[in-house]
Design brief:
single chain, 114 residues, alpha+beta, 4-stranded mixed sheet, 20% strand, globular
């Protein structure tokens, strides 16, 4: 489980959604801004269009936080939005790994252009 110290507050979520870069994968879409190492933070969002019931949305959100807690986190503040329900934690883990790879590539590209 991702510790609360690595979760975004509501105002921080709004800031990231307004000013963050966008990325997509098969299961997730993401908005993120670069952050210094050690202050990375994430928010998990499961929209109503993905899961109609609150129980299903909370279960999916907790699964997202659980998988995030198991992975090494990139130095970003990010909002991860589930686009469709995963079949299990393994599929979610693989998709987040793919998204983190794209994120790292995007951050490297920005550093080379500056």
């Amino acid at each position: 489980m991702l510790p609360k110290s690595h979760r975004l507050s509501s105002p921080a979520v709004q800031t990231v959604l307004r000013s963050g870069a966008r990325l997509r994968s098969q299961l997730l879409s993401c908005r993120f801004v670069e952050e210094k190492k050690g202050s990375e933070a994430f928010a998990a969002v499961v929209p109503l269009r993905v899961a109609k019931g609150a129980v299903a949305r909370n279960k999916a959100r907790r699964a997202l936080y659980r998988v995030l807690g198991e992975l090494p986190l990139p130095p970003v503040r990010a909002v991860l939005m589930l686009e469709k329900l995963p079949t299990g934690d393994d599929e979610l883990r693989q998709d987040i790994g793919l998204l983190f790879g794209k994120m790292e590539a995007s951050l490297q590209q920005k550093k080379h252009h500056v």
